[in-house]
Amino acid sequence: MTREKNTFRDYLFILWIATRLGFTSFGGPVAHLGYFHEEYVRRKKWLDEKAYADLVALCQFLPGPASSQVGIGVGIIRGGILGGILAFLGFTLPSVIVLILFALALHQFSFYDASFIHGLKIVAVAVVAHAIMGMGAKLTPDLPRKTIAIIAVTVSLAWQTTITQVIIILVAAAIGIFFFQKQEKQEQPARLSLGLSKKTAIISIALFFILLAVLPIVSRITDWQWLAMFDSFYRSGALVFGGGHVVLPLLEQEFVPTGWVSEQEFLAGYGAAQAVPGPLFTFAAYLGTVIGGIPGGLLATAAIFLPAFLLIIGTLPFWHALRHVSSVRGALVSVNAAVVGLLIAAFYQPIWTSTIIETKDFILAAILFSLLAFWKLPSWVVVIIGLIGGILLPYVPF
């Protein structure tokens, strides 16, 4: 697809379409990709079927929020880097605003012990269990990958630190390079035509790795809280493989043990994030607001999505060649199995251990899980039912 020079009106149109999607895209990453296909491919014809399929494959290959990266990629293909920024803002800001307001209300009225907050925490149990079921079936279909997942669970729970999770991902990638190179053979990808130069791409990739390496050092030297926040959110966004739910263990290890956010605040926000449209990564806006008010929420949002921007800009021009590298594909196969293990570990600690305390908690969680997994209800409907269930739980006589 050849990209023509865009006018101011073209950029406004990109923003308008993305914002409309941001207000209506419920259901998680897979549903988002369906909404994008309907809007960008079938209705607007901004790119063809092959180009869209290849863009989705690239974003599933990269760490970060896949659906957001697809939206950014479509914006870049349509309107260059500015188009990517506008597509991101439109898709992301509606849920960011709602979660910032929720965090402010939670702080202002101090209803941390309210029964509906406990309902939100039980929603988180059901949602993460459902994510594990789907991801486990897809990403750990054989014994070697199941073994990698179990080892990841064991190591993650035995040594609960952020560096442990990074080591698990790196070791899994090394295992994949040596043992999984022949897995997941890829079909011939389409060539994406866009206005990004390879020089811009190289600068973007270099900046991604420089920030990943330098931010932790500088934040420790300066001991500045805002920089430490930016570093934690950036690192979480840079190391997430496998979808938005996998950001949960990374963020939990960054902010709960340090005392910046309590377990109760963390899980309440995660449950609330299921009720809003758009990407699950906007959970960072809630956490940032709890820590530092509205400026903290905006900083957290920028930090956690910045790696997604840098990676999509840095890899689009090279994707056609990169996709044929067997060692890269093998590493991804193994890393995806490891992140299933990381998500199981997060499901147990802190979600299960701090939420399922009584029999009636388990019953409500089982009902919500069934509504998601078997009845196929939208996540926002399950959140509403969870809120009502949380309010009613104190009156259940057992």
UniProtKB/TrEMBL annotation:
<keyword id="KW-1003">Cell membrane</keyword>
<feature type="transmembrane region" description="Helical">
    <location>
        <begin position="157"/>
        <end position="180"/>
    </location>
</feature>
<keyword id="KW-0812">Transmembrane</keyword>
<comment type="similarity">
    <text>Belongs to the chromate ion transporter (CHR) (TC 2.A.51) family.</text>
</comment>
<feature type="transmembrane region" description="Helical">
    <location>
        <begin position="81"/>
        <end position="106"/>
    </location>
</feature>
<dbReference type="Pfam" id="PF02417">
    <property type="entry name" value="Chromate_transp"/>
</dbReference>
<feature type="transmembrane region" description="Helical">
    <location>
        <begin position="118"/>
        <end position="137"/>
    </location>
</feature>
<dbReference type="InterPro" id="IPR014047">
    <property type="entry name" value="Chr_Tranpt_l_chain"/>
</dbReference>
<protein>
    <submittedName>
        <fullName>Chromate efflux transporter</fullName>
    </submittedName>
</protein>
<dbReference type="InterPro" id="IPR003370">
    <property type="entry name" value="Chromate_transpt"/>
</dbReference>
<keyword id="KW-0472">Membrane</keyword>
<dbReference type="GO" id="GO:0005886">
    <property type="term" value="C:plasma membrane"/>
</dbReference>
<feature type="transmembrane region" description="Helical">
    <location>
        <begin position="12"/>
        <end position="36"/>
    </location>
</feature>
<keyword id="KW-1133">Transmembrane helix</keyword>
<feature type="transmembrane region" description="Helical">
    <location>
        <begin position="201"/>
        <end position="221"/>
    </location>
</feature>
<dbReference type="GO" id="GO:0015109">
    <property type="term" value="F:chromate transmembrane transporter activity"/>
</dbReference>
<feature type="transmembrane region" description="Helical">
    <location>
        <begin position="363"/>
        <end position="396"/>
    </location>
</feature>
<feature type="transmembrane region" description="Helical">
    <location>
        <begin position="331"/>
        <end position="351"/>
    </location>
</feature>
<feature type="transmembrane region" description="Helical">
    <location>
        <begin position="298"/>
        <end position="319"/>
    </location>
</feature>
